[in-house]
Amino acid sequence: MSTTTSDHPSRNAATLLDWRPENPTFWHETGQRIATRNLWISIPALLLAFAVWMLMSAVVVKLRDVGFAFTDDQLFWLTALPALSGATLRIFYSFMVPVFGGRRWTAISTASLILPCLWLGVAVQDPATPYWHFVAIALLCGLGGGNFASSMSNISFFFPKEKQGYALGMNAGLGNLGVSTTQFVVPLVIASGIFGALGGGGVVTAATQKAPAGILYLQNAGFIWVPFLLLCVLLSWFGMNDLAAARSSLAEQSAIFRRKHNWLMCVLYLGTFGSFIGFSAGFPMLIKTQFPQVNPLSYAWLGPLVGALARPVGGWLSDKTGGAPMTFWVFLSMIAGVFGVIWFLPSHGSGGNFAGFLAMFMLLFVATGVGNASTFRMIPVIFRAFHERGVAAADEQARQFAVRQAGLESAAVVGFSSAIAAYGGFFVPRSYGTSIAMTGGPHAALYGFVAFYVACVVITWWWYFRKGAEAPC
Predict the structure, then answer these.
(1) Which of 45, 58, 196, 377 could make an S-S bridge to 165, C-beta 3.0–4.6 Å?
(2) Same fold yes or no, 1-247 and 249-473
(3) 60: Cβ–Cβ under 8 A, 6 or more apart, which residues?
(4) CATH number of the domain at 1-247, please?
């Protein structure tokens, strides 16, 4: 691909000067083809980012088997730190695409994930590796969480607003499959020396009541992602595009912090994606504590899988019906789902129904997946309407400027709200732990979630869904 800029998208130049997705003729003749290519390169890159983000959660359960003597508390922090660093990095990543360009930033951010994978592969082969090495690796795994904000921001620039629900739903939904991919792939690759002498030797593990003695190649959990990351770096650099129309300074993007709807959408996306990633992180722990007779690893992958698959469906439905109606019913469904979970939980250490508990959590995961898409469908509509109202009687140049500013702010809000929501990956499981420690069960945490979802219903209805709402979408 040429690295020169061009105002002719059909030339497939690296940087496109002419990009008008809202123009039907432009979109159907050239824009759709280019946008689709960028989307289908973005999806595997984001899937790998999620896989690396969740990598430590799949590795820590095996560290003791290969000779490390870390405490439970130390292992918990290794699991939690990627969520904290990923959420924080998203704040900065939200603003990177307009500064560096989507093609460049996707390639750079994907390449950065190679570092924690290689470091982890080396660190786990020596039981004398200090704990701080793993802390640093866990924090670097958070780079994968940061990638979501920039990836979603980038894709939002390529598609017209009536297609953004589908595009963002596909990007995020299939990208979210990285969570389940890690849980599937890691147990498989650590069981054999797939890299031969190049990957290092295995460790003979002691026999237990649950598993016979075997050889563990834990380093493969990190090494397995490296060739795929390299491939995605090359695809991003040579197959994606930067958009000149998406370029802006940090000062221009910082306008979102003065917008009320930025903060309202942060709350709503915390309710959807924050719940999705938090439930994903806490689901195995909750099964283990409440249903000790059940092997949590047999079911841990189900929730993230159905939630991820529900997101593209939610995007499609939101394009058809509107984002606010879908979001409103999503939060009502989540309230019902949490009450269902409470109903099927054991009480005072006895009773409970695991099948019902699992079914209610599947409902919650599906609802969060749909809600992840519907909330993102709302954002571009809200900001497009906000800016167009201000130039209703203005000339064409002013209207074009308003459309551009709406796109920039929408992309920034998509990224920033995803940053705030990602903290759910830490706080949801911690809420379970605190509730169990203080009350003996997770019920208090779940009732807290219900209260928050009720607030989300009120916000959605008042500002976006009711007749006469300020920003119907």
Answers:
(1) 377
(2) yes
(3) 75, 78, 79
(4) 1.20.1250.20
Q: What's the Cα-to-Cα distance from 124 to each of 53, 54, 67, 130, 175, rounded to whole Å?
A: 17, 17, 9, 10, 27
Neighbour tally for 424: CB within 10 Å: 27
Cβ proximity of 176 and 49 under 8 Å: no
- Rounded to two decimals, the pTM is 0.75
SS3 content of the chain, % helix, strand, coil (to 5): 75, 5, 20
Contact 114, 226 (CB under 8 A): yes
- Kindly state the DSSP code that residue 395 receives in the 8-state scheme: -
- If one counts every other C-beta atom within 10 angstroms of the C-beta of residue 2, the result is 10
Q: Would you state the structure tokens that stand for residue 48, as one six-digit string?
A: 């790998």
Dump the DSSP string for 33-48: HHHHHHHHHHHHHHHH
Per domain, the residue ranges of the chain are: 1-247, 249-473
Distance CA 414, CA 164 (A): 11
Q: Which whole number is the average pLDDT over 387-396?
A: 69
Domain at 249-473, CATH homologous superfamily = MFS general substrate transporter like domains (1.20.1250.20)
Q: Summarize pLDDT for 103-141 with one digit per residue, the tens.
A: 999 999 999 999 999 999 999 999 999 999 999 999 999
